[in-house]
């Protein structure tokens, strides 16, 4: 298995035993969600914005309007950092100090460029939508010329990344195990409920197979 090399940029300093640099594991964590948080600096002020993304190999795609402040800032700087986090459980210890959470998180660092080639840009938009619901791009009306031209698509080439994972039970001080206090883990996960059809659907239009598959896979 290939790893990202450890550098000052991606090194996990706090809790290094939970650090993962394996590329396959990092990609799996990235592929298990479609929402990331992107950090950037605007006029000296640090800002973090959530946005949808799609991944293809070592590329991550995000999109926004032509005047999107974050997108223009990233394009101007030419580099970006984004993070994703899955909250998998509450770790409720005997002591307040040792309360924690089980999670899978990734930080990605890379170079940013504007996607301008029309086919590449359309493929990137399809990647983002299909990352949300696999295969759903073929079920929708695709962007018309006006929508396409009004959308800015950025590609982040992953230069390096790291993951941090906690997947264990309570860790208390030795003396606290003798206390008559409940401790344990409350597992958490995001689930999908049945789809709620739009009120204005034409008669006879049903949920696409891809939507039903997504719901069934995430119940």
TrEMBL record:
Query: What domain of life does the UniProt record list for this protein's source?
Result: Bacteria
Q: Which InterPro entries match?
A: Pyridox_Oxase-rel, Split_barrel_FMN-bd
Q: Which Gene3D superfamilies match?
A: Electron Transport, Fmn-binding Protein, Chain A
- Please give the name of this protein: Pyridoxamine 5'-phosphate oxidase family protein
Native organism is: Aquimarina algiphila
């Amino acid at each position: 298995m290939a790893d990202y090399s450890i550098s000052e940029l991606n090194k996990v300093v706090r809790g290094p035993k939970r650090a993962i640099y394996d590329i396959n594991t990092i990609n799996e964590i990235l592929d298990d969600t479609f929402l990331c948080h992107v950090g950037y600096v605007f006029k000296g002020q640090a800002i973090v914005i959530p946005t949808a993304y799609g991944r293809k190999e070592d590329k991550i795609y995000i999109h926004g309007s032509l005047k999107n402040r974050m997108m223009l800032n990233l394009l101007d700087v030419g580099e970006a950092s984004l993070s994703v986090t899955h909250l998998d459980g509450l770790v409720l210890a005997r002591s307040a100090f040792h309360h924690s959470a089980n999670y899978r998180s990734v930080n990605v660092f890379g170079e940013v460029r504007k996607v301008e080639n029309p086919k590449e840009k359309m493929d990137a938009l399809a990647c983002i939508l299909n990352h949300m619901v696999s295969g759903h791009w073929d079920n929708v009306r695709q962007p018309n010329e006006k929508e396409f031209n009004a959308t800015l698509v950025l590609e982040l080439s992953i230069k390096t990344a790291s993951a941090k994972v906690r997947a264990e039970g309570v860790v208390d001080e030795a003396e606290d195990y003798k206390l008559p206090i409940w401790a344990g883990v409350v597992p958490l996960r995001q689930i999908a409920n049945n789809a709620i059809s739009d009120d204005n659907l034409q008669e006879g239009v049903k949920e696409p197979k891809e939507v039903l598959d997504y719901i069934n896979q995430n119940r």
